[in-house]
Structure formats: structure tokens, C-alpha cells
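tool_log.txt
---
The assistant was asked to compare two proteins side by side. It first ran the structure predictor on the initial sequence, then on the second. Raw inputs and outputs are pasted verbatim so the downstream comparison step can read them without reformatting.
(1)
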Amino acid sequence: MRYIFYSFFPIRTNIASVCIMVVIFLLSGISAAYSQEKALPSQWDLQACIDYALENNIQIKQSEANKETGLVDTKLAKAAMLPSLSASIGQNLTNYPFSQEDTSSGTSTLSTSGSYSLNASWTIFDGGSRITGIKQAELNNRIADLEIEESKNNIKLAIIQNYLQILYANEALKAYEDAVELSKAQLESNKIKLSVGSVAKSDVSQWESQYAADNYNLVNAQTTLENYKLQLKQLLELDRLDSMDLALTPPDEEDVLSLIPDKQTIYQTALHVMPQISNSQLNTEYAQLGIEKAKAGFYPTVSLQANTGTGNLYNHSGYSFGSQLKYNWNNVIGLSVSIPIFSNRTVKSAVEKAGINVYSSQLNELSIRKELYADIETAYLNTLASQAQFVAAEEKVKYSRESYDVMNEQFTLGLKNTIEMLTEKNRLITAQQELLQAKYMALLNIKILEYYQGLI
């Protein structure tokens, strides 16, 4: 078989086929790896959206990259406590144009010299500036962790809000679809009645107008739903062409009317779980360390230096290269003290500015606490109001439905005209939309309160 195969296909064809197969294999491997890396859930519920966003959101990845930069800065601050070591090699060419030496014997007026040294320096005392710098760098790392958590919380809240908007738009779409079907049925019924002369042409025209208006509302509802879905894809960093099967299960009434803790209890819990609170406290500590670092400028700086080196000189020395390196070898050790006496108020100004930064950080911390309490109080009051509106809207829909059913029976019997029937129908649709709005406003504010309690 191998003989027949090679007798029918030339060698070049075999090589080309193998190359094509290798390329296809590599491309399929790359595609499989990419697909594995970008594995999408088969169905997207709220938790799946949150989990995917926490792994793929660009803002979170940027915060994590900033943290890595802070870790490098911490290593740099700790390395400043160690001595430095450097080596230097120099070669110099010197010309003596007016040299008094006899050059008739061939002695050159140029001289070449070399120097070779190893230098070490170590700052022993600097008023605690480097130690304070290490503390600030470590605080920055903790602040970076909190900023990552804050970014994650912001993404969670944005996804929850967008997901609830999708659920609301989906239910509103179903309500408008029912309204369109109802208008269509009434329109067909009135056309039949018109053909037998039981209704006027104006009645059919009114139902045609209502049917067109309901279709218009339906198109708007469809557009709103698609826009919310697009916003969710953007939050998840998904491509617009990626398929997305959302689990659009309406929430239960028990979720809407669930009991919520007292707002003071929620606030006290939020003070311990919200990253922005801890972040503001650490920023105040960082600013206080800035005062210590600035005060270090009042103290002297003590440094230890050590040097070992040698050199050589060509053309003007009777010693060999090796002998010169040996006899010129020298070791130096020294201690230097730099004492600040008058620095044009530089250090004092730095200390004063650091104190101002501490005061500003304390004000910012207080402002964040007040803003947090205001947000919790607003969400708390909105929750209570939305729950009350939901209960009232349920009653309104119930009685609007009963009134519509009675009106429909009377309209069928010819006891009510078309305008009265349309008015009652629009009242029912309005009541249904108000119920949906109250329902999802209550759910959103309940989720916000859960967010402030660290339950999301």
C-alpha cells in the first residue's frame, strides 16, 4: 500500500500535505485553547454574570495591575535599607605639549593612565525616612487590595441593577404583547360587527388606532430590552456577537416584600464591611506617616563609605603593569555626617504640608461616612416606599382587572361604547406597568441594602 501511495503522489505533494496538516493542527489547537480560555456559561443567571465579570472586567484587572506596581515599590523601599556596591574602570589619555623631557630619544608626550575601583556606600541613619517609606509602601498595598474590592463591589452593583432592568423590561414586554393581542382581537371582532352593521366605522377606526399604538409600545419595549442586554454584555466584556441565554425567571412576591433590618443596623454593618471606609482610614494613616517622613529632614544623615582600588600609568613609569597595580592598591573607609543647618524652610514647609494632608484625609474620611449613611438611608426609605407602592399597585391591578372584565361584558352586550372600553383597557395597562415598576424598584433597593451589608 505504501508503494502504491508514493507511486501516485509526488514527493512535493506529500510535503505540502504534511505542512497543511500541521498548520491545521496548530490552528485547531490555538482555537481550542482560546475557546477554553473564554468558556462562557450555557445559561446566564445573576450569579453567573457576577462571577464572570469578576474574572474578566477590565477595570478590576487594572486595579490588580496597580497592586502589582505597589508590590514592586515595596521591594524598592526595603532595598533602600541595604548598602550599595558599584565598580568603576577608567582609562585616560593625557597630552603634555610643553613637556620639558627630552623627546629626541623617542619618549612620547602622551601619557596613558588607568584606574580600577570597587565602591560601597551604606546610609546608617537618616532620621527614620526609609523605615517610614517602607510603612507607607505596605499601607499602599493594603489600600490597593481595598481598591480592588471596591472595584468588584461597583461591578457587582452595576450588574445587579442592569440584570433587574432586563427582568423588568422582559415582563413589561410580555404585558405589551398581551395588550397587542387584546387590541388585535377587539379589532377583528369589530370588523366582523361592522360587516353586519352592528358597529360604526368610527369604532373600528378607534380600535385600529389603539392597535397601532400598542404595536408602537411593543416595539419600544423590545428595543429597551435589547439595549439593557447590550449594556450587560459591555459590563461583562463580551463581544456583541457572543450568544447569551439569560435566565429570565421573574422574582417571587416574597422577595419583594422581604423584611429589611433597621437602617442604623445596616449602617453599623457597612462601616465594617465596606472597603471605602477602610480605605479612607488607611489613607489617613498614610498621611500621618507623611508627617514622620517629613520630620526626618530635621535629623542628620550618617553614611558609611568604603573603597578599594588601584591604578597604573603608561610611558612615564619604570614599573611594569602588574607592579603598578600592586603598589598602587589602596583601601579607604570613611564615615560622613550631613547635618542640616539652614535649608530655606524646605523641611518645615514639608512638615506643615504633611499636617494639612492629614487634616484633608480626616475630612475625606468623615465625608465618606456621611455619604455612606445618606446612601443607606435613601435606599432604606426607597425600599419601604416601593414595597408599600407594590402592595397598593397589586390592589389597583386586581380591581382594574375586575373593572375591565365588567366593562368587556357590557361592551359585548352593547351597553358601553368603544371610547369607554379603550379607556378601561388603558387603565389596566397603566396599573400593570405601575405594579412592575414598584416591584423592581423594591427589589433593586433591597439588593442595594444587601450590598451595604456585604451579602452580595
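(2)
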Amino acid sequence: MENKNYSRTTMFAIILFGSVGGLLFGYDTGIIGSALVFLKTQYHMTPMEVSMVTSAIIVGAFVGSPLFGTLADKYGRRPIIFIMGSVFAIGSIGASRIDSLTALIIWRFVLGLAVGGASAIVPMYLSEMAPTRIRGAMATFDQIMINTGTVLSTVAGYTLASSGNWRMMFLLAVIPSIIMILGMVSMAESPRWLIMKGRVDEARKILLRTRTPEETEEEIKGIVAILSIKSEGGMKEFKKPYLKKILIMGSLVLFFQQMTGFNIMVFYLPTILIGMGIAAKNAIGFTVAFASLGIVATLYCAKIVDKVGRKKLLEQSSLVIGFCLLAMAISLWIFGNDVKHVMFVAIPGLILVRIYFSTGWGAGAWIYVSEIFPIRVRGLATSSAVCTNWFGNFLVAFTFPLLLSSVGLAWSYFIFFVLNMISFAYTYYNLYETKGQSLEQIEGHFREKYGDQVGA
């Protein structure tokens, strides 16, 4: 008989410690928005320098994602998450002690290595540990922690705004880094990785912590069956047409997540609000409320994602975000930055974008990509797709200040409206719904659909 209390305690620990990397992801990408308010004044930064400082963490993530993803396939998910916690701590200390913009760019790149690894491995780890019936909800907690990290970064920015202590803004990330390191000491390895390495008895013991004996044996049977399919493994597997098609799909999903334009809100929201005439400290305060709303919306996503499905939430997200950005662009053309635009269009529009990103592309894209790749190359394939996400992130973060200075905020919003309509069309016509299916059933579907043998 299942010990439900033990099961819930174990799942809570997996979610908490497994997703601390998401919290650091959110904090380290979000804190730069608050710090830039003061760094720009101290270092007299040009738009190009702002782009370089903001984009350094993204370039690091582009490198760190495949690096840590490959290591996770070889050495396991758990030890690599432990190492990433150490990199987060070192990078945070380094960023807090800089004496030049060059040094800041270097340390933000180091932080990016861990951020990139966390963005690929954390949702994959949670998906592999979760029972099928709640896999979407458990994987959503990575996004909840990312939002929590964003809230903490904006609270830190708001609290330290009066002193302008941007060094402490960076240094505070050491605390969750230590929690991540200590937490992973007691966490279990992914049972799927263990079975792939022939350690079935160890995997069974881990699965029994969160599943009934019947569910455990059924899951092991499915994993062993999918592993029995002839597979090259490693880079040779990427030559197969079925994996190339899935990789394109996963890469586009994560690229389109960035093309929603949401991250321009995370990186530049204080700057945008100041440009609307709102005082610097009040702008950071609004950002705190903005990020807090994301936690509530993502909790709602966790409640419904295994019922509604990933695909429908992504479609709704594209439509609502796109038309909000269109409305904001039209309002700016008509009213400019006066009180009518700010109070009746801009702020309500930003709130709706926050809600529908969190319930759709924010969580849904990471859940979807953590589910679709075959077990033998899941770490490498997931991290390869994540590279596309970070390329899109870099593209947005690097070009937006230049776009803002050249065509203005209204046309910038309009461009992202068009991109959201493209992402809606792709999602509607191409994505396969994964809710209610085991990871092995999903792998079997794609192998059959794209011509690879199943059960050979």
C-alpha cells in the first residue's frame, strides 16, 4: 500500500531542491534590470554597453546549456546540478566585486554557464522524477521558482534602490546557491538515467517513493521497452531523421518563447517605465508586483496544465500577448506617453502579458521540451534545443535597446505582435499534445510518426 504522506514529502523535496536552479535562473537574469538603473549612471553606459552587459549571461547560457546537458547524460542529473550550484555561487561573488564593465561582462558570462545548464537540466530532472499524472504540474514548478527568483531580484532591487547598492544585489544570489548545493546532496538520481545505465534496482527504490508498486513496475517496463529499441546513442543518434525533426520542433518551441517579447519586460521593465515618466524607485516597485503576479499565474498553470494540455495553453498565450502588444503600440501612436496610455493601456497590457506568459509560454515551453526527446540523448537533445532559446534571448536582449533607440517603443511592440501571430500558427498546426502520456509513450509516438522503428 502506498504511503501517501511519504510520497508527498518526497515529491515536495524533489520540487524544492530540484528547482532551486530555476530560482537562481530567475534571480540572475532579473537582477540586472534593477542594477542597470544605477550602473548606467555610475559607468555612463552607452546603449551598446547596456546590450553587452545584459547579453553576457545569455552568451554564457548558450555555452553552458550543451556543456552541462552532455555531462548530465554521461554522469547523471544529480551531480551536474550540484556543480551548477557551485558555479552560481562563484559567479555571484565575482559579479559583486567588479571594478569595470569588462569584469562585469566576464562574471555575467560565468553566471550564464550555470543559468544555461539549469534551464535545460532542471525541467528535465523534474519531468523524469514525476509520475505521469502530475508531470506537467511538477515541471511547472521550475517556472514558479524562476518567477520567485525574479520576485526576489526585484525585491532586492527595490529594497536597495535608496542606497544604490548594486553590488549587494548580485551578492545575495550566493544564498540560494548554497541551498542548491546542500539540497542536492540528499536528492535521488533520475530513475530513468539509472535504468539506462543498468541500475534497475536502484531506480525501483526511487520510483517507489512517489508511486504505488503497480505504477512503479509499469513504468520500469515502459522504460526498459523503449531502451530495447536499437539506438546509436550520443551524437550518432542525431543523424536519424526522427530525432532531427523532433529537435527542430523543440528548438522552434523555445525560440518562439523568446519571440513573445516577454523578456524585454524582465530585462528592461524599470527602464521602460522610467521612459513613461515613472520615478526610478516607483518603477522598480511596480516590477516587484509584476513579478509576484507571475508566481500566482504559474501556480494556476500548475493546476490546469495536466487537464487542459500544453498545446492549448501555448496557443492562448500567443494570441493574448500578441494582441496586448498591438493595443499598446496603437495606444502609443495615438496618445504617446501621457497618463491615458500609462493608466488605461500600458499597465493593464503589461499585467495581461505577465499572466498569459506565465500560464502559457513561460511554463508550457519548458514542460513540452522536457518531454519530447528520447531517453538515451535527452540531456544533449534538450540542451541543444535550449541553445535556440538562448539565441533568441540574446537576439531580443541585444537588439531591443538598439531597436528602442531607432524605431521607438510602439514599433518594437508591433514587431513582437507579428512574431506572436507566427508562433500561434506554428503551434496550432505542428505541435503534438503530450498530456496524460508517459515519457516512453511520447518517445514511441515520435519514433513511429517520423519513421524510426518501435519495438525492434
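---
observation on (2): The domain at 7-449 is CATH 1.20.1250.20 (Growth Hormone; Chain: A;). The two ends are 35 Å apart (CA to CA).
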